[in-house]
């Protein structure tokens, strides 16, 4: 049950009790030099004063042990914290030692230290102490018992206990699954496997607000209280089913199945009972069965392979399935190569979530099937008809699941000579060609249900075809009549090649006529700005209630592809640091986009105007917000997006001086390959603005996300110096080249003297540590592209700087 958190007072009050210091006793507090051998694992290392918690060695497998904390009276001694979850130690000769330097260290039988506490600010030798508190927090204190130099609550593994906070710097991890706060301040569950990563909770089909969450919080903190209520700062709150029941020990844990649950202990038996779970359907968890596999729950979880695939490792379902036929290795085979043919195997009530090559709305089954055949990288398609036909082309068969309640059907693409009958599923016929190519003229065979993949006899085949043709004809007639009315009533001219895309975006955004936008802008009277892709005007909609920015695209004689690419991409993107689109117009030669109105102009107006002074606090906030927005585009979008024109003019500012990146919709879209953003693509022409373009644009090499990193580095430096980098000159008036600027920046970083570089209009009112870090980041962004950091790395570094005191200033 979600509850709104007006303030974080309730959360903070819960945290006050995180480090309550009990009276010292030999049972729950030890001095430096204490140790425990694994052979004595039956004896705890420490016990909390009220005996609720114990810590010591727990059995982690055959002759393997971990050093953990657990509820003393739990029947199965489930650990609530473990020092070495991925590196168990030997059952003989291993030991845990509280060293005299204040570090807690776990040594294996061969003397190797497999884990040690990251104790800071220690000292005092024997004055150091380690204690297990009544909260379950294992704490190392300095000479003063109120000085905490390390605590296990700061390093959670897979569990939270009451009063233990989950923060922006911590996460719960179990295998490939983690519970963490994303950089949009939302609590999420993530599958992060060896090849693919995927967010699966809250519902990834919705934005945070549709899921009852809010991104408007900066604390990023969640706490389970003693009554069984978990409260998160993103507006998520949930009750355990035994809420308020006194004397109950509870924990919140993420399991190896990727689900998060609250457990309550039975006082008399010590057994754990699930009193809340994040996901009611186990197959909603992504990655459980691996690639090319299908999850099914009836009533136990079962993994099976898609037709044409077999298990990689039957002992480890997470490794998924591999194809039993030769896969496509080259999608641009020469025409002289023999073309292979494909068919589809039908799997009703089945879907593979995400990784869509494309999505079409209001299209026929035959259209969907034909497009998948023509796309070399299409591994299959999903089709469902609920008043309209929805078609999803799949590049990867991942997150597969079967449910009787799912209305769609997946069609898995296999070679035409692959026998999908049960008797032959284990032996696929191999293609003799060097690879598989797509032939749009292929005949497609749609096989039976997933329970029995059989070849249909001729009689059944023709009966099916006649029946299907009749239904298809009726559906086409409805589409034609409806389409004619729609097009004639709005007098639109839509290229036939773009009709499927038009139907898709028309179902997702508000569609405006040219007359509506002409009236809303007063015949395009008030210009807000202009760039290479068009002119932006101020407009008013909904009887003067809503102010918008209307972008009138230019050069659309060759720009339809860019226009439709922008529409399909922006419709899937939502981030607090990105400008949001409200709708569009496509009417003949008129192509317009309608954006939210960002009232405080663009960064260049505030940064380069000699009559304005942008305060340092706002500059840093803008730098951080821009980094987070670009990191989202590069690493977190369902598809990998490169902006290609990062500059101050494309960074808009809200009334509170929060950054919103504009104009990213015209960027080249590429299939994401991994989390590093190293995938490259080729663009038909150069993009960007002189002074902000990375050197590789001029080298005619494939472009990747590092072009945005370079541009961001230039913008970041400009926020420090308050001037255009491209306008910088020597004492003799000669323009400084980038190698010269890089050398100057390197001197600043080496000496640490950033003062002469900072904008003089600030009159010394700036944070020198933040300024130096921004210069250091800017310098790294100007390196060869393989050495540049990612935007995710940059966002993390700036976030760490943001946690520092905002007030320190240098006065010259």
TrEMBL record:
Positions of the Protein kinase domain: 522-810
Annotated residues for binding of ATP: 552
EC nos: 2.7.11.1
Domain Apple: 331-415
Entry keyword Lipid metabolism: no
Location of this chain's protein in the cell: Membrane
One biological process term in Gene Ontology: recognition of pollen
Keyword field contains DNA-binding: no
Keywords: ATP-binding, Disulfide bond, EGF-like domain, Glycoprotein, Kinase, Membrane, Nucleotide-binding, Receptor, Serine/threonine-protein kinase, Signal, Transferase, Transmembrane, Transmembrane helix
Top-level EC class: transferase
Main location: membrane
Positions of transmembrane segments: 462-487
Membrane-protein topology: Single-pass type I membrane protein
All residue ranges annotated as the Bulb-type lectin domain in the record: 21-153
Gene Ontology terms: cellular component: membrane
Gene Ontology molecular-function annotations: ATP binding; protein serine/threonine kinase activity
Cleaved signal peptide residues: 1-26
Coiled coil residues, start to end: none
Catalytic activity: L-seryl-[protein] + ATP = O-phospho-L-seryl-[protein] + ADP + H(+); L-threonyl-[protein] + ATP = O-phospho-L-threonyl-[protein] + ADP + H(+)
Family classification: Belongs to the protein kinase superfamily. Ser/Thr protein kinase family.
Protein name: Receptor-like serine/threonine-protein kinase
Organism: Digitaria exilis
Lineage: Eukaryota, Viridiplantae, Streptophyta, Embryophyta, Tracheophyta
